[in-house]
Amino acid sequence: MKNVQFQRGTVHNIRVHVLPTEQFKTYAISVYVGSRLQEETVTPTALIPFVLRRGTKVYPETKQFRERLDDLYGAGFGFDIYKRGDYQMVQFRMDLIQDDFVNSTESLLEQGMRFVGEAITQPAAQDGEFTSKYVDSEKTTLQKRIESIINDKVKYAAERCIEEMCKGEPYRLHPLGTIEALKQLTSKELYTYYKQWLKESPIDIYVVGKTTLKEVMALVESSFGGEREVAGGYSTLQGQSKEAEVREVIEELDVKQGKLNLGLRTHTTYADAAYPTMLMYNGILGGYPHSKLFINVREKESLAYYASSRLDGHKGILTIQSGIELENYEKAVAIIRQQLDAMTAGDINDIELQQTQAMITGHLRQLQDSAFELISFDFNNILSGVERTVPDLINDVLAVDKAQIQAAAGKVKLDTIYFLRDRKEGV
């Protein structure tokens, strides 16, 4: 697919994005509801989609709700909760077979849009509160999800590193919220907040498939009725504060293997022209099995069970994750710093450059084979206020040279070193 172009409109202050295509045999529907990460709202926001999946005004029992999906030829309906920069995103997804492939008297796209609209805007509720049995059940589900992060020490260390690095910033908050706040939520409080969340949050609806913008706009108008206060739009909150010195945080828990995480400020975001260069920087540093961290920290020195880096382009933060023997802390930190210094010095060979370009562009080409990946890519543009197509980004990545990567490396600053170790004395 060449230079994918979404067609756009607005209904009820909801932004609508449609990609008319016959490339896929299904319709892909995504609804993004975004809100700023805030301590007092992050937990109820996370709980809302769990409760919404239990039933609607039309199908108040969960069994009916799920049977309706079966009636739609086994349509899939689900959600994700995550953060993009300083925003907490709730994404609802539905995929259902295109009308051409079934014998149905009513358009499946119309039925699917109605189902999604009802699930989000007409939940099972009575007397100004959610059905209490659903809220209680889903509070337990969400609590287990949060506990699974705490129990997975790799994820726990990654989250703690961000928490320490971004103290005082919204980004420190986990998008699933906290167990403490969850336990205090009542059905009535949650419903009151839900009504406000739905009224005030930016909403973007995407449809990919054999349809038109005009058809989808009409379906959104009938399925997501009611005027809303917010016309949509996201502002980029950089929060690129920098400690005068690198902070070192050592936490002791009952662990047998050390978890060493580093947080760095890249001072480059998705909206910047230098973003393709930062993609290359991350790829060469620790994004792939041929990267410097993997080769030098794990393979050559045998210091780590895993060693990699991850880039959050919306926040402009890069994190390094590694699992090490407890006694190797200082040596591992030193060798990781050497890799950062090598990037700053422009110590990048042709193989590293070419392999990284091949990996990134290969992944980008694969995006074009998935409707939901195309939606996700386009929504990154909406969030960032830029217009960038997949072919554009591929060309930009292929044009990046060593001098540009070295220049980008000069802006990357180590902010926080976090080490999770056992409870023994000393390091």
From TrEMBL:
It comes from the Bacteria. InterPro entries: Metalloenz_LuxS/M16, MPP/UQCRC_Complex, Peptidase_M16_C. Residues 185-358 form the Peptidase M16 C-terminal domain. PANTHER family: INACTIVE METALLOPROTEASE YMFF-RELATED, METALLOPROTEASE. This is Insulinase family protein. It comes from Paenibacillus baimaensis. The lineage of its organism: Bacteria, Bacillati, Bacillota, Bacilli, Bacillales.
